[in-house]
UniProtKB/TrEMBL annotation:
Organism name: Clostridium punense
Record's subunit section: Homohexamer.
EC number: 3.4.24.-
Cofactor note: Binds 1 zinc ion per subunit.
Domain of life per record: Bacteria
Name of this protein: ATP-dependent zinc metalloprotease FtsH
Length: 605
């Protein structure tokens, strides 16, 4: 945890302030509030005031008399006087119509005094102080935990609060089926007990970010109608050593009291990292937390009805002990949605907004290959925002189409200043991509070409959309893809006889594909089907590390270079052959700024 400088004075400081305030209050403030001023007067004055009818109430004690009387201003004041031998007093009071009431405050016992003057304010100030400090720390980002000393702030969600069901999760049919068993068990544990079946204690949801892992866990709780304890792995990592372990203990204690219930540990990789991967000396705190988690998981009886769900997008880093039978022995993959899945997710989120009747979700789904559920939810929302911006009462298709581009490439930068010369270069560059793609047999059709810059930094782009869902990539398709990426730079070379920095992203993407062809797909002649690389984190961008000697590594680089060069040459020759079309299309694009795939094909034909 980052400790900010100067931002937090030690607790003792606050308590010192409180004590000083309390002492001042006790000496000056409280007596004024609690005790009304009582003025001593002599007996003669008392008698005179009775005569003149100023005295209203009287209390006679053994050696003193308290009374209330109207003073000169006509206000009632409290007075006290000594008691003398005066047998006529009672009669005189009667004839003056005085009432007998309590006037002199009773002396409190020292204990009561102590409680009122010292303990009560202390309690009040401490309470206020805690809340105040808690608030400040809440703003400072969760430091409030420092004061809860090992008590985990586990949130308890019950069905009414998660409010999610499997109907909210679209397109994850396999995952839902796997989790349905857990729901059934929580509904009906007897059925499983009778036959002697052991239900898994824990299930691990694995998949890329934004695919709905957290959503699925909530849906399981919603479907089962049981309490849902949810905690994120990062919340276990505490300021003080030993806190994480204490929290785990506390969490499981709470869960067992509330069973049947679901415990959900989100981002479990933050505590569940392999214990020997810590590097320098490891991380004792995390290790303790993990050990406690393992102990707790072993310690409780699954029959009691506590099911543990966890989610991660880096399953490869998890400690093997976590995955042993009896712990997270069930793995539920939550993958990126396919074409139908994307369409279903769009529909689920589309229900929450107002849509035009002719919305074509399929077209949007086709244009968003590789998007996660979170991306798609975001697209619907961006579309709704755009509809509002244009004063519509519902979302139309073009809102969603623009939203796709916003999510992929950022917002349009309509007033970015780009010189005419640069615009021309960008137009040729984009048409270069599109032409190469169109003239090859294995590339996806061109959907849209634009030279309106986006906030992501893209100065223009060519959007291709596959007809259907492709799960495999052939070697020909891979090569065509690389050639398409090369098309931008090739067009610049042909037309301007110079090159620009505009192709940097193309180069990166092309190299990635070429490299994967050689090292992972077995698509190069030189290495054939030899595995040269291993993927480190399949769900997070899938960066890979070489598993070969340095010598082989340099040969791999040569082979990658060879592939890219060949594709570059092919792109150049395609453009040379269609030079006239290149000029026509580039001029058209420059004028229009955005053209559709159909316009493009009409001019090309
Ligand atoms: P993860 O935990 O896998 O990173 P989340 O469960 O937090 O992903 O998903 C984020 C949001 O994306 C959800 O709140 C939901 O709106 C949307 N979403 C993701 N996957 C789906 C899906 N399969 N169906 C419907 N909405 C989804
Ligand atoms: Mg999540
Ligand atoms: Zn490009």
């Amino acid at each position: 945890m980052k400790i900010q400088k100067n931002s937090k004075k030690p607790l003792i400081y606050y308590y010192a302030v409180v004590i000083v305030i309390m002492m001042l209050a006790n000496t000056f403030l409280l007596p004024m509030i609690l005790k009304k001023e009582i003025s001593p007067v002599d007996y003669g004055t008392f008698l005179k005031q009775i005569e003149s009818g100023q005295v209203k109430k009287v209390e006679i004690q053994d050696n003193q008399i308290g009374f209330s009387a109207l003073n000169e201003e006509g206000k009632e004041g409290l007075y006290i006087t000594g008691r003398l031998e005066d047998p006529e007093l009672v009669n005189r009071l009667y004839s003056a119509n005085v009432t007998f009431e309590r006037i002199i405050p009773k002396e409190n016992s020292p204990l009561v005094d102590f409680l009122i003057y010292w303990i009560l304010p202390m309690v009040i100030f401490t309470f206020l102080g805690q809340r105040f400090i808690g608030k400040i720390q809440g703003k400072m980002g969760g430091m409030g935990n420092a004061m809860t000393f090992g008590k985990s702030n586990v949130k308890v969600y019950v069905e009414a609060q998660t409010g999610k069901t499997f109907a909210d999760v679209a397109g994850q049919d396999e995952a839902k089926e796997a989790l349905q068993e857990i729901v059934d068990f929580l509904h009906n544990p007897q059925k499983y007990k009778e036959i002697g079946a052991k239900v898994p204690k824990g299930a691990l949801l694995v998949g890329p970010p934004g695919t709905g892992k957290t959503l699925l866990a909530k849906a399981v709780a919603g479907e089962s109608k049981v309490p849902f304890f949810s905690i994120s792995g990062s919340e276990f990592v505490e300021m003080f050593v030993g806190m994480g372990a204490a929290r785990v203990r506390d969490l499981f204690k709470q869960a067992q009291e509330k069973s049947p219930c679901i415990v959900f540990i989100d981002e479990i990789d933050t505590i569940g990292k392999s214990r020997n991967s810590g590097g320098l000396g490891g991380n004792d705190e995390r290790e303790q937390t993990l050990n406690q988690l393992l102990t707790e998981m072993d310690g409780f009886d699954a029959d009691k009805g506590v099911v543990i769900l966890a989610a991660t997008n880096r399953p490869e880093t998890l400690d093997k002990a976590l995955l042993r039978p009896g712990r997270f022995d069930r793995r539920v993959p939550v993958e990126l949605p396919d074409l139908r899945g994307r369409e279903d997710i769009l529909k689920v989120h589309g229900k929450k907004v107002k849509l035009a009747e002719d919305i074509d979700f399929n077209a949007i789904a086709r244009a968003t290959s590789g998007a996660s559920g979170a991306d798609l939810a975001n697209i619907i929302n961006e579309g709704a925002l755009r509809a509002v911006k244009f004063g519509r009462r519902y979302i139309v298709q073009s809102d969603l189409e623009e939203a796709v581009e916003v999510v992929i490439a950022g917002y349009q930068r309509k007033n970015a200043v780009i010189s005419m010369k640069d615009k021309l270069t960008i137009a040729y560059h984009e048409i270069g991509h599109a032409l190469v793609a169109a003239k090859q047999n294995h590339s996806a059709p061109v959907h849209k070409i634009t030279i309106i810059p986006r906030t992501s930094g893209a100065l223009g782009y060519t959007m291709q959309v596959e007809e259907g869902e492709k799960v495999l990539m052939t070697k020909e398709q891979a090569l065509d893809k690389i050639a398409t990426y090369m098309g931008g730079r090739a067009a610049e070379e042909i037309v301007f006889n110079t090159i620009t920095s505009g192709a940097s992203n193309d180069i990166e993407q092309a190299t990635k594909i070429a490299r994967a062809m050689v090292t992972r797909f077995g698509m190069s002649e030189k290495f054939g089907m030899m595995a040269l690389e291993t993927v480190n984190n399949q769900y997070l961008g899938g960066d890979a590390s070489l598993i070969v000697s340095a010598e082989t590594a340099s040969k791999i680089d040569e082979e990658v270079l060879h592939i890219i060069k060949a594709c570059h040459e092919r792109a150049t020759s395609i453009l040379e052959e269609n030079k006239e079309k290149l000029h026509d299309l580039a001029k058209y694009l420059l004028e229009k700024e955005t053209i559709t795939g159909e316009e493009f094909m009409t001019i090309l034909a």
